[in-house]
Amino acid sequence: MSDKVLLDYGSGGRASQRLISELFLKYLGNDELNRLNDAAELSLSGRLAMSTDSFTVDPIFFPGGNIGSLAVHGTVNDVAMMGAVPRYLTCGYIIEEGLPMDDLETIVASMGEAAEHAGVQIVTGDTKVVPKGAVDKIFINTTGIGEIIVDPSPGGDRARPGDAVLVSGTIGDHGLTILGTREGLDFEAKVESDSASLNHLLVRLVRELPDVHVLRDPTRGGLATTLNEITASSGVCCELVENDLPVRPEVRGGCSILGLDPLYLANEGKFLCIVPQEDADKALEIMRADPLGRDACRIGTMTDANPGKVVLVTQLGGKRLLNMLEGEQLPRIC
Predict the structure, then answer these.
(1) N or C, which end of the chain has less CB nearby within 10 Å?
(2) Which candidate, 140, 14, 136, places its Cα nearest to that of 2?
(3) What are residue 282's phi and psi, to 5 degrees?
(4) Are 299 and 244 in contact (CB under 8 A)?
(5) How large is the average pLDDT for residues 113-142?
(6) CA gap 310, 238 in Å, rounded
(7) What's the pLDDT at 10?
(8) pTM higher than 0.90 for the full model?
(9) Taking Cα atoms as reference points, which of 291, 260, 286, 105 lies closest to residue 180?
(10) Is the pLDDT of residue 325 over 90?
(11) Distances in Å between the alpha carbon of 34 and those of 11, 25, 66, 329?
(12) Which segments of the protein form a coiled coil according to its record (predicted)?
């Protein structure tokens, strides 16, 4: 193959077949994908969760991952937030002519590694190559499907007054990492994306605590925006305690310098967990037993005081309304 992606690789002819066999099947191959049919034959039963997402992150390589691993992690997590075991992914690539083949191989290899770690199979896909300038390097679309293992499944409309609001770890890591890498900023301490597949931890959580009310990953718009979505759906109020919010010192320092609020920065390896008050300690115990949840903590409580609102109790004891993010704080974050 050429050392750069050529338009011919998207033609559907011999070059396309070489790209598929020598690159994609090399890293993503499995019994179903290797059949190279127009569609995948899947074996699933019961209630299903399905999610689709497109990834356009800039830059495509960043500390802690790249667009390939991010695409797998993001869709696996979205399916798992429904109390489901992710099983299968589809993958579509839109690639700019001239992308270095080494970069594409690194991206595909990282997708294969991420899928293997998550225990999912990429069973069908598509590749399009567009002229230089028609797309920025590479965009990836993934769709995931999984089997729901709890009834009822967690949902944004299930939060209730008195519920404990938990988060699985520090917030803002991914957003600040992307910004720093994109702009060439040199922070004093290392900042790295938290991109990871959370499904193994989430499956353990819902199996041991089948009455988890809400699971959500606070990606674009960050923690504050996600909580606004939940309170709007449930008709309750979320009261957060500022002193309890887990933010790495390097992220807090970077946000202070740049005038950013970590509550509105994207996360790609953290999740919100809202459970009945009596289940909070058990949920934290389960989360902290996993490396991806070792910094889990309680950050607030659902109340009936201000339905549909998110209120922050500040370090000085005052209260501040946290609205949903207005505008695009940082475009192409995922």
Answers:
(1) N
(2) 14
(3) -65, -40
(4) yes
(5) 97
(6) 5
(7) 85
(8) yes
(9) 260
(10) no
(11) 20, 7, 25, 41
(12) none
CA-to-CA separations, 314 to 225, 248, 298, 310, in angstroms, rounded: 18, 18, 16, 13
Q: Provide the H-helix boundaries in 83-192.
A: 101-118, 173-183
Gap between the Cα atoms of 82 and 148, Å rounded? 7
- Tokens 């979320």 identify what position? 238
The domain made up of 164-321 is a member of CATH 2.30.40.10:
no
| Model pLDDT for residues 65-108, shown as the tens digit of each residue | 999 999 999 999 999 999 999 999 999 999 999 999 999 999 99
Q: Can you read off the two tokens belonging to residue 192?
A: 């790295």
Q: Which of 140, 132, 138, 151 is nearest to 89 (CA)?
A: 140
Task: Return the SS3 of 131.
Answer: coil
Strand ranges across the sheet with 237-241: 214-216, 272-275, 164-167, 297-303, 237-241, 310-313, 319-321
**Domain spans, the chain:** 7-148, 164-321
Distance CA(19)–CA(5), nearest Å, equals 9
- The one-letter amino acid at 146: G
The neighbour count for residue 247, using CB atoms within 10 Å, is 18
User: Based on C-alpha coordinates, what's the Rg of the chain?
Assistant: 21
Q: With a cut of 90, say whether residue 244 has pLDDT above it.
A: yes
Residue whose C-alpha is closest to residue 78's, from 198, 256, 239, 252: 198
Which residues partner with 237 through β-bridges? 303
Q: Does 3.30.1330.10 match the CATH number of domain 7-148? A: yes
Residue with tokens 């994609």: 24
Residue 197 CA to residue 291 CA, distance in Å, equals 12
